[in-house]
Amino acid sequence: MTEWAIRAEGLVKEFGSHRALDGIDLSVRAGTVHAVLGPNGAGKTTAVRVLSTLLRADAGAAHVFGHDVARSPTAVRSLIGLTGQYASVDELLTAHENLFVFARLLGLGRREARSRAGDLLERFSLTEAAHRSVSTFSGGMRRRLDIAASLLGDPPLLFLDEPTTGLDPRTRADMWETVRELVAEGCTVLLTTQYLEEADQLADRIAVIDHGRVVADDTSEALKRSVGGLTLQLQVEEPDRLAEASLVLERIAGREPSLVDGRLAVPIASGSVTSDVVLGLRERDIDVEEITVARPSMDDVFFALTGSAGTARADAA
Amino acid sequence: MSAATVTSVRRPALGEPGIALAAAQSVTFAYRGLLRVRHDPQRLFDVIVLPIVGTVMFANVFGGAVAGGVSGYLPQLVPGVLVQIAVTASVVTGVQLRDDMDRGVFDRFRSLPVARTAPLAGSLLADVTRYVVAVSMTVAVGVAMGYRPQSWGGLVAGCVLVVVSAFTISWVFALMGVLMKSASAVQGVSMLVLTPLSFMSNALVPTETMPGWMRAVAEVNPVTHLVSAVRDLAGAQPATASVTTAIVGALVLLAVFAPLTVRAYVRSA
Fold it and tell me: Looking at beta carbons, which residues of chain B come within 8 Å of A48?
């Protein structure tokens, strides 16, 4: 039998005339990582705030491990950990004081709270900074402290709201490692992100949301297939030979290229196709101005799923 | 890797905490408030400096006119300034609460399985230290200027009454803090409330010379009753009536504004 960490049906939330959630359905299996992928303004954070009892939905229902988020918020809160987009720790206090206070609030005794805080600081490599004020911390250290705070109560469900936005690539990789460890230990994670790659790396399933609606909810493999994987783009030196180049591309990639702004673009199976293309063009003496291979971007995902890349960008602005 | 691990074991979920647990959680939130003061002692600046400025200034500005001199004025003035400063300090509670709530840490408080009242009650409780500092400073400055109460015990009792009242009044400004969008808006509106509350009273001058309508306002003003209570206590006068009025006033404020504030807080996610 499947155990559901989250079951949400038809969640609606309006802020004035803006419909932030427009009927969100989401089911997250216990023990999995479920990513919620979408641009800024798509409703990701609002969804997390509703599911974590911080906001009340205007319509629809959501259950966390069977507890109604609206009717039994305290029960839900005792089963979740929340790491917000902005670090939810006290800037003035030290790292240790922050964790100690949160641990006490979760009902741990003084001694227990102190040792638990120490353990978590060690786990997240913050022992040396334990007695420094959080205001002196780097962005990555804050996120780590934030996650440590979310884990104090051993929550079976963890919400990570854009855990790597604004982090440098190295710190991002560390964060991914942390998420993988948590899942290995049995934690269920709901992760929101703007990055397709992050969802791809970490999630068992990805829900793509746009304008407050779930437009796709599937495994990363299935989504990638629908988006088309890699795209090869080609610009040739002599524009009158575009048609000829297009035929070469079609023969090698097996699909008819599209022509946008004087560039040919075609989906390819792998990056190694590029060398075949370059050789094919060489044989016919077609000079290449520029050739690039692009991974599917958020815009591509949106174009594929909603048919309107423009709206995704407008929301991000 | 340390021993801190995450379990997926289903645990019994918690219900809304009872009163004893809620009180313990409030104390923990208050402890957090005290830690903040320890790391940022500037938060006490107003309650240290204002009593010095207020007492010295008002004693010399009004002393001659009201009581023919500074030393004769002090027994009236010190209780008055005591109350004024404590009430002013409770405005800052509302402003700092708004500021605090705009930070991410309140999101975490809301996501914890704690009593809904605890974060608020804790913040307000921590600010009791501010009122204690304000009251002690005012008395110290008064004494340095020559103030000698008839009854020291009465003065101490009066100070306790002022601190408790400042705590209950702080719920009014906390409500503004919860309802308004920015700390500066809270500051502005609170000052609008505070200024008449503080000056349309008997704190600095007798109400007899005020125009009739203002005198009527001054005589129902809780600040007036509180000031009278402290004067009676410190002056070794019969104080039962004024103290009872002040305590009843404080309890009414608390009974009305604490639930309003908590409700507004729970709704303002």
Answer: none
